[in-house]
Amino acid sequence: MQFLQNIDGDNRKKLNFLLDCMKDNVDTLAIHTFNWDFCKGLAYDILNSKSQTGALGNIALKRDDFRRTKHPIYSFAVAGKFQKELVVLENKGAFDNNSPFAFMHKNNAK
Question: Is the pLDDT of residue 24 over 80?
């Protein structure tokens, strides 16, 4: 996402730019919102645990058009066409066949 560095404005504007690039809800935007506190024995709260992988994910988590996937470590903030399919996944393992990673692989995500 190096090209985002060339866009004027703050991270909110950059996120809006990405959403504007999505065509009539036929695309899906998934932003990693990983958090490793669960590995340290801390509780995971799908609504309140912050992303430890960047400001863009935390901004997405505050928006109504994004929903978060359920995995306590490797979660994603998702908007667009496959949002419903991704947020209902019940994967226990981060990379299981029913994980967001597997879903993205099966659907040729870019």
Answer: no
